[in-house]
Amino acid sequence: MSMKKYVYKLLCIVLIFPFFLIPGTFQADAIETTVFFDDFDGNKLDTTKWLTAFKQWGGDNANGGVLPQNVSVQDGKLIIEAYGDQYDGDIKGINRDYSLRADGKRVGGAIATINDYASGKYEVRMKVAPKLGVASAIWTFHYEEYNSDDPLYKNKPVGGEDYYAVNHEIDMEFPGRPGPAHQDFSYNKGLFNTWVGENEDEYTTEYASLGQAVNDGQFHTYRFDWHTGDSGEQKRVDFYIDDVLLHTTTEHIPTIGSRLWIGAWFPNNWAGTPDFHTETLEVDWVKITPFEQVGDDWSPETYPNDGWSYLDPTIPEDGFFDDFSTPSLDPGNWMIAKKNWGGQLSKTTSFNGGVVPQNVKLRNNNLVLEAHGNYYNGPVMGMNKNGSLRTDGKRVGAAIATTNYYASGKYEVRMKIAPDPGVASALWTFHYEELYPADPGFICKEVGCEGDDGYYAINHEIDIEFPGRPGPAHEDFSFSKALLNTWVGENEDEYTTNYTSLAAPQNDGQFHTYRFDWHTGDADETARVEFYIDDELVNTTYTHIPTRASRFWIGAWFPRSWAGKANFNTSQLEVDWVKITPFHEAGDESVMESIFPGSYDFAEYAEYPKALSTDPNVPTPTPTVAPTSTPTTTPTATPSVEPTTTPSPTPTATPSPTESPQLNLIRNGNFVNALHWTDISTAPAQAQIIAGQMKLQPASTYSAEAEQRVTVVPANTYTIQANMNSSDGQTFGYLRVYDGATVYEVGNASSNVQQKQLIFTPSSNEVRVVLHAYKGQTGSFYFDNIELVKD
């Protein structure tokens, strides 16, 4: 199922700031090599394994897309609903631009693995949606676009002079048909496809007879073995049902690691007419067994963050609760901000270093958001508003935001604020839209508008921020005061700021419960926001009350002029728990935020923190008030009549190594010879040891990399440092440590030699140390004196 993308005008930003926008810069070896298994145990989708799609493809007006609301887990099965032409329910479909359709007809659902996989055995035990008109499918998918100035560009009909699409894909889709003509659809047939591009000479479709009708109401095991090529293995894809080989394809075989998708969606004209109300695709289990063949390749997608559930503004029916007791921060609950706001010192340099994922930590069953002040000289670097890296980590904070959007409700956070002036401890809702002169509702106001040009910003926001001050003048900052704000826009007549005095200073080192009750308006409720501290009402605001469903944010960040001077090294905001109880009032509005092509202001999954072991010398804080999480009804399990599920693979235990502290674990870290480092670059890029240094020479389309694998002890803390510099003061290089899916990184572009440092706690017995210079740069990058020691 080919998905042609929009050519975004801001693609040039990717070429200028690739380290900010392209997730591949965080995981150079991004193909997952461990066995994947999920039997959908529990009552919700495991969001550490899966993404849920929110997008539309298949032709303009062909269908209403695939929505997160149609994906659920029930009784140990993944359930994907599909709404046909008779559907008359409340769910509305979307168009390709995410605008709502008038109805929910021809709306399906789909999920995809978070990680990429390449050659391997892909198995899905599922029961297909039984009616014609909807396609039940499993497929891999990887997409890139190349402009005409790129060496990999080809002038072909799809895209033409605008772009060339590299589309690597493998499909199993049902129903099928006997040949290319769109007729005689049948569940006795399937479509088995392989793609390396979107033009007619770049894909193969097999119209396969199955020997049985698979819409028989039974579970079957659908499988393909993907061979990218190896010694003794021809490039090919073997397609199976219930372990019976049905077809082998040897043409147009993909090689690039991809996500595995599972979905029920509505083709325009090749699956029949969906003359039904609702049908379901059920999945019992999924297993991927990597082959790790030589032909496996990896390359970052052009739009890796396009079309996932985090864009969906639909307000969940249920409440939200997180006490941060999980092994890692859950991307199904939270997004980690990676952006900058708060003022500019110059056109390219921001006042602060933004908020970065390295400062988000899980410790002692609490969320910790670190803030680095003016005295900080550690390894974490900041970023400017344009995405460029800064040369230091001063005034760099951290922030997270809920993945879902919420509207009217009770918002509670039990937290210990950062105690130092200069950094703002804040919790807030935020929803942002930009309207242009041709858009309905456009108003030419002071912010953003010049005459009838520019834009109008609709900014719906509620804030609780510390420290506060007695009035508008930026002076007399105090933790005995707070800023309690409501916004519906950015102009002076569109927001209210309450300079609120509190009963006691809040930077007392204790946990307090900060809360606001947001009323958008209902039959017996006046629109207002009530602000509470430890359940004591401290302010009620009736003006500029937001109505747009918003993400809920928590952060420690650095204002330019209203929080004081950040004369400290490191401070931290600590969060015990978060709870949202929706009111679902009549004033709630669910509206798409403005989406700016090429800008993804959140961390990739590989940058999410894992919980650090509890320090026995540090007592775990106990909240004064223990909240009751929103109850969840668990369906009663029913006996399964299907064959026994293939058990989840159990890895063989590896003995933990031992080592002496303070011993440099890097071999040949001063590059006195050519040993121990492996050049993993793709020619013409190269990594070579010259004159006692590692020299990385990237090429226009390939990065330069060298690696060394190092044995470590899990759960111990390590420090790695290196001298780094570039030949021209512009070429960026990175020191990275890969610990499974987790990546630690520090970068530099200075022509002066700078010592950079990373501190990390591995979860596995081996890490990869990678020296990296990103593609498309004309200079060289140098490393020397690399040391890795256990603290």
Verbal overview:
This protein is an all-beta fold and about 800 residues long. The chain folds into 3 domains: about 280 residues, Jelly Rolls; about 290 residues, Jelly Rolls (Sandwich); about 110 residues, Jelly Rolls, CATH 2.60.120.260. Helices cover about 0% and strands about 35% of the residues. The strands form 7 sheets. Strands 16, 18, 19, 21, 28, 29, 30, 32 and 33 form a 9-stranded mixed sheet that branches. Strands 1, 3, 4, 6, 11, 12, 13 and 15 form an 8-stranded antiparallel sheet that branches. The longest helix is centred in the first third of the chain and has 6 residues. It starts with 10 loop residues before the first helix and ends with a strand. This is Glycoside hydrolase family 16 protein. GO terms for molecular function: hydrolase activity.
